[in-house]
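Title: Prediction job returns without error message
Component: structure pipeline
Severity: low
Priority: P3
Assignee: unassigned

Description:
Job completed but the reporter wants confirmation the result is attached to the right record. Sequence as submitted:
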Amino acid sequence: MLALHVVLIGGARVPTTAPTCADLLAGLRAKTEANYAGYHLEVRGARRQAYLAMLAPLERRAATLDESACFPVLFAYLDWFQDPHLFVFQSSRVDSAETRRLMPGVPRVDVDVEAMRRSIGARGAKVDPIEGLWYDGAMEIAVVPDPAGKAGRFVGVVVRSDTVTLPVGSVRAVFDRTAAGSYRTSLRWRSLAVTTPPVSLHRGGTVLRLSPGIWGKRFPGAAAERALLDSVDVHRPTFTWRGNVAIISVLSHDGPYRRTIDSMVAANAERLATSEAFLIDFRGNEGGGSQTTAALTPYVLAATPPAPEPDFGGAVMLSSPDQITYAKRAFGAPTSAFVTRLVAAMEASPGGLVPLEDPPSPAPPRLATRAAPRVAVLVDRGTVSASEVLTLTARREGRAPVIGQPTAGALDYQSVSIVRIHPDHSRWFLGYPTITAHRRLPEGGMRGKGIAPTIPIDWDRVADPVAAVLAKLPPP
């Protein structure tokens, strides 16, 4: 089964009045209950009562809020399911006229980057992990303590710009610390739309995930971690050598990176065969399409296949109007035999779970053990979705140890579609998984647990991940 992200957004309607938070929560609930197979399979009995108990105070809270203050309520509702593929998506699209209208209202702060560097150096351990100089493509953002002095608040100020809408001095983001390493965030996009994405730090604080989006850190941070990142676009994979140890670092499984990874592996294949080790670094990976890293799969396979895993049955799709629309667009030509069969079965079984019968992918070749180096897969709690496919393969094959922390656990329900939650407004969407691994979930599932490492490492306590992994790897 492929772990794909397919985004389907319907055409915009002309908005009337802004929806209330109660409207948005009701729409989100309706879309979730109609489309999310995890609701149908798992919200039963005592868990059904827990669901209603969670929902009641959120509905009371939503009744007191307007649209601008609604995100925490919507986030709390979906967070209850603990599924990384279930999320609120806020569109950053605004038309050019709205962008021009918003420009004069963007807050401005003067930041002296050299003074910021000196301050961080002087404060040492008292520096918050979010502070420092970050990059998002050609744009650089200095995250500094709130100039107004609010405790636990940090502002991200543009110090090198790549757009006229956010010139130097513009406040790009505001981070309010809620716990150690956790923040509530307001992010201003280049369109000047403002969203409140979930944020998380990875790789010793050198990677900041603002879903959807990733920033890389220029300063401060461990040099060994920064050396594994692309210095312009942190999404792009890198392939580096440290002595005779190869490291491929993959933070995104976006489809266009497949060709890049294929080229990297092919160019280094001869040297890899005699290398000391090959490290596949998926820490903080945001997901995408599992075939993006197909070239890496042979390196984690054992010389002989492992014993079969328990068979819980094949993948299924929940039938709903949104799901039928997805099926017509996501699997190739709508007139193909596969799509025609699937759509007909879904239309005949509203609210039911329909077998997907995904055509199996050809098995990748198994490298002779003597022709492949020692291999390890590096993961953390941000390793999600498509990156978990190869991680799970490595765990099952047993040849390449999985090193680090448990992954996000996003393969029970896969392949994301995004649908509008309010019929008249194009700002708020539900992202939900369209494909269910099997109909016996949560039995045999990973949601809430993730893929356990074979060799644990707390990355927050490690300055040099390569050295830490090499110290743990068993001898060849």
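Comment from assignee: result matches the submitted record. Residues 96-221 form one domain.
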